[in-house]
Amino acid sequence: FAIPPERRVARGSLIAVIIPPARGAPGATITAPLKPIPPDGGRNAALIAGTGIVTSADRQRFFAAEDGIVEVTGNSISVHPVHIEDGDLGFDTVEYAGGLAVRGDVKGAQIRARGPVVIQGIAAGATIRALGEVRLARAARCNIVTEENVYVSALLRQCTVLTRRRVVGPKTAEVSGGSIIAGQGLIIGNLGVAHIETRVVVGFDKVSAQRLDELEAEIGQCKAAIHQIAQALRPLSASTGDAEASNRRKLMQTLQSKREQLESKLRDLLSEKRVTLMRSSERLEGTVVVQCVVHPGVHLAIHHATLEVTEPMEAVAFVEDTDRGAIRVVSLADTRLMNAMGVKATT
Questions:
Q1: Which of 198, 200, 202, 176 has the alpha carbon at shortest distance from 297?
Q2: In this structure, are residues 291 and 171 in contact, taking their beta carbons and an 8 Å threshold?
Q3: How far apart are CA 311 and CA 329, in angstroms?
Q4: DSSP state of 216
Q5: Residue in 121, 177, 117 with CA at minimum distance from that of residue 148
Q6: DSSP helix/strand/coil, 126
Q7: 289: part of which helix (H) or strand (E)?
Q8: CB hemisphere CA count around 10 (13 angstroms)
Q9: What's the count of helices (H) and strands (E) in the chain, helices before strands?
């Protein structure tokens, strides 16, 4: 959240202007005999419009295509579509074309974001569907679905988490209660708590099937909107007068522009569907790493191997033993075995 206010921009804001090169001032050598050095004519600034940027017709003025955060990398300028909520989110249903960062608490809200979601305060009873990573400090009784990693800095209590990648936290973080389905595994400080059942499932991609359903719905909506515009354009081809013809042309241009946007979106959705279909058949390899303590009451599943923790364990990794069809417990102190099995205790 340490983002300077001047980097937060609104859609349509002027971000940069290229100033034409000007002739410099004449100079001189610094060694005797002194000789004049004529100024050169300067060079054009090589500024590239990145994502989230539109330019003027002469490509000298750069505008934000959407609300977000400005970033300059080398000669490229971009705007990342991230909405920053300075306060709390209550029992609202909100949807963002990009990412969302909340400085306050989120209680009971339903959030859909096509980018990352970051919540600095407490998340309680929230539903989060993100296409980007999710970062939380403390969360309780939340439902979280994302294709990317879920990072928790302090506590995840009685939450349902569905991710294709990992749930990750430092040694001080705790995951207890609820259900964690993480395709590529879990790395956390403490797992489980006394008298609360905690379920962890690793090695399955449960997210791609849900995303395919979402894509089918979005593709259907997009096709329907394109069809409606096509129907609206048909009667506009006729003209009954100069004034009416001018109005018709403006309306046709607006509709055609909208149709082009929808057709571009449809191509993107169909491409994402193909990638998601291929990805859904991949076998995911995952492990569960607990850097401090795993408590009794934790139920683990890695692919079809299962294990119930009945006594406290410290600094261990749970990996699949494919030969025995069981889950193997490995001490994090046994670095040689950890390396041999390709297990990482941190990200």
A1: 198
A2: yes
A3: 13
A4: H
A5: 117
A6: coil
A7: strand 287-294
A8: 0
A9: 3, 28
> With left for phi above 0 and alpha for psi between -120 and 50, is residue 184 left, alpha or beta?
alpha
Three-class SS string for 34-52?
CCEECCCCCCCCCCEECCC
Start-to-end CA span in the chain (Å)? 22
Beta bridge partners of 307: 300
Single-letter residue type at 7: R
**Rounded-to-integer distance, Cα 321 and Cα 302, Å:** 10
Instruction: Cite the DSSP H helix spans in the chain.
Output: 207-233, 242-280, 335-340
Residue 38: left (phi > 0), alpha (psi -120 to 50), or beta?
Answer: beta
CA dist 131 and 97 (Å) reads 10
Pairwise CA distance, residues 42 & 252, whole Å = 45
Identify whether the C-beta of residue 158 lies closer than 8 Å to the C-beta of residue 175. Answer: no
Furthest CA-CA distance within the chain: 89
Would you give per-residue pLDDT tens digits along the chain (347 residues)? 556 778 888 889 999 999 888 888 888 888 888 888 888 777 888 889 988 899 998 889 999 988 888 988 888 999 988 888 889 998 889 998 889 999 999 999 999 999 899 999 999 999 999 999 999 999 999 999 999 999 999 999 999 999 999 999 999 999 999 999 999 999 999 999 988 999 999 998 989 989 999 999 999 999 999 999 998 888 876 655 566 677 778 888 888 888 888 998 899 999 999 999 988 888 888 899 999 999 999 999 999 899 999 999 999 999 998 888 899 999 998 776 666 556 666 55
- Beta-carbon contacts of 62 under 8 Å, excluding residues fewer than 6 positions away, are 14, 15, 16, 17, 47, 49, 53, 54, 55, 77
Q: At what angle do helices 242-280 and 207-233 cross, to 10 degrees?
A: 160
> Of the candidates 276, 297, 291, which has an alpha carbon nearest to the alpha carbon of residue 338?
291
| Number of other residues whose CB lies within 10 A of the CB of residue 145 | 23
